[in-house]
Design a protein that fits this description.
alpha+beta; 3 helices; 14% strand; elongated
């Protein structure tokens, strides 16, 4: 074994074995997976800059799996009219698809759906929800489609 903390012991003939443990999460068709750190301001559908790192990881996954097709799903919090929230969530999902397409992912591999406030993540009385709870409900996820 070679101590890679001490590179002076490495030579061109040294064999270095690096072991990294990676947890694999199986992705099942029609199972929803939250895209971490993709959130929206209240009443907005534009992506925040903080979303890009997570979306870039999704781009990497799609590039490594060229036959994978996804449905992007976005949600709103409980504030606002139901019809308005449905349209807003659709625009949020579309903004994610546009980002992915802008990074080179084929549009034909992506669909999107707005769910409005129909599937709240944090169930609280809307008037009493904290801003943090509202933010958790304004989320985006994906599902593998066949």
């Amino acid at each position: 074994d070679i101590d890679i903390e001490s590179p002076e012991f490495l030579t061109k003939d040294s064999i270095v074995k690096i072991v990294q443990e990676i947890e694999l999460i199986p992705i099942k068709v029609r199972t929803e997976f939250l895209i971490e750190n993709v959130y929206y301001d209240y009443d907005k559908y534009e992506l925040k800059e903080t979303s890009f790192e997570s979306l870039d990881k999704l781009v990497d996954m799609l590039e490594l799996n060229p036959n994978m097709k996804l449905e992007i799903r976005s949600h709103t919090d409980c504030r606002g009219e139901e019809d308005y929230n449905l349209e807003l969530s659709k625009k949020r999902a579309e903004s994610v698809v546009n980002y992915l397409v802008g990074k080179g992912i084929l549009n034909s591999r992506l669909t999107y759906k707005g769910l409005g406030e129909s599937e709240l993540f944090d169930h609280c009385n809307c008037e009493d929800c904290s801003e943090e709870s509202h933010q958790k409900n304004r989320r985006t996820s994906f599902q593998l489609i066949d």
